[in-house]
Amino acid sequence: MPDLSHIVKAYDVRGVVPDQWDEALAELFGAAFATVTEATAIVVGHDMRPSSPGLSRAFARGAASRGADVTEIGLCSTDELYFASGKLGLPGAMFTASHNPAQYNGIKMCRAGAAPVGQDTGLAQIRELAERWSETGLPATDAAPGTVTQRDILHDYADYLRELVDLGSIRPLKVAVDAGNGMGGHTVPTVFEGLPVELVPMYFELDGTFPNHEANPLDPKNLVDLQHKVRETGADIGLAFDGDADRCFVIDERGEPVSPSAITALVAARELAKHPGSTVIHNLITSWSVPEVVKESGGTAVRTRVGHSFIKQEMADTGAIFGGEHSAHYYFRDFWNADTGMLAALHVLAALGGQDAPLSHLVAAYDRYAASGEINSTVDDQAGRTAAVRAAYEGRDGVTIDTLDGLTVTTTDWWFNLRPSNTEPLLRLNVEARDARTVARLKDEVLAIVRG
């Protein structure tokens, strides 16, 4: 049988089109998805990549062939698909490769209520069926074919978000938004309509070839245009969305990036003000400031592995109101525990517009430590290099080591995490300390071992 492990990742399907997968395989994935979820109806959406409409339609055909009625919502952001899954109570599939280059595409899948589908929650079975059917063809079924209908839910999505965050009484704000030619160009105008906001749009034209820059705000070079625009126009804030607009990065009025950990802490404080004593989830790479602010705000902080399936599961298990990751994924109980950068952005606008200080002053209380950001190293032996780093620090006075996700080494003054990529031959290093000099020293020490 064909081996689809090269495109079926830990949390989703992702690969080059048509070299690694195509519409024929998308149809098999659709049939397998309907079979594994036992769905009688599903919802499907797609981003602006050239291959997305065809792949999405093929998936819908496959699901309908197993008897599932398909609601196609067309062009949408990933969190808009999660909204549809939650609001309609249907399993869903989003066709996107997020921030990957134009030749890539993928599928993010969820069960009804936006519950995640990962390797342990159905994705492995979907892969197995798609592999088998690639060889044998789809088996016959007694089920009558499902229907395929279209529905526009963009305004419902926008209305729902604005109900969750009151922006009616904020001071007027000038907001620069870089959509990166991704789905933010589709969602932002509708979500921001009628708000006391002067919108400065950048790259709102939907173009899956990404003619201006990669739609990956995690890479600093992709923020440069927005930083310049904020300074040039005197904007109060800049927002940068990734390709499928489920992540949002924030730039302050000086044109400086705001740490996603600081945004996590700010939103956590706001959510805990509404829901005192609740739980907030953070992954192990977010700043020490996050659990500190959660505790100061009367909440309980729970540390978890990196990755949306782990965060969503922990939120479901603990009843958490909010969760944040260092990669600018933000999860809300009020949004079916799913991640939505747009809702996080509205929280930041509400906090900024609810007082008179500039954004840099507002977030200073939540940005307490020096950090390296994520540094990637290409290595041949992820496990061996990680073991070498562990050996170098294990047994030192005051050092604690844990392996919840990769290797985390901690003292009272600093910590670092070294974690293998799930999809590439990379080790990812994050360092945080009480001062920048210590960050620089640790970064050099660890990278010397990793890169050998």
From TrEMBL:
Keywords assigned by UniProt? Answer: Isomerase, Magnesium, Metal-binding, Phosphoprotein
Cofactors (names): Mg(2+)
Picking any one GO molecular function of the record gives: intramolecular phosphotransferase activity
Q: Which domain of life is it from?
A: Bacteria
For this protein, the record's SUPFAM superfamilies field holds: Phosphoglucomutase, C-terminal domain (SSF55957), Phosphoglucomutase, first 3 domains (SSF53738)
Q: Which InterPro entries does the UniProt record give?
A: A-D-PHexomutase_a/b/a-I, A-D-PHexomutase_a/b/a-I/II/III, A-D-PHexomutase_a/b/a-II, A-D-PHexomutase_a/b/a-III, A-D-PHexomutase_C, A-D-PHexomutase_C_sf, Alpha-D-phosphohexomutase_SF
Any idea where the Alpha-D-phosphohexomutase alpha/beta/alpha domain is?
7-134, 156-255, 263-369
Gene3D superfamilies the record matches = Alpha-D-Glucose-1,6-Bisphosphate, subunit A, domain 3, Alpha-D-phosphohexomutase, C-terminal domain
Pfam families tied to this protein? PGM_PMM_I, PGM_PMM_II, PGM_PMM_III, PGM_PMM_IV
Single biological process term from Gene Ontology: carbohydrate metabolic process
Q: Which residues form the Alpha-D-phosphohexomutase C-terminal domain?
A: 374-447
Q: Which family does it belong to?
A: Belongs to the phosphohexose mutase family.
Listed name of the protein: Phosphomannomutase/phosphoglucomutase
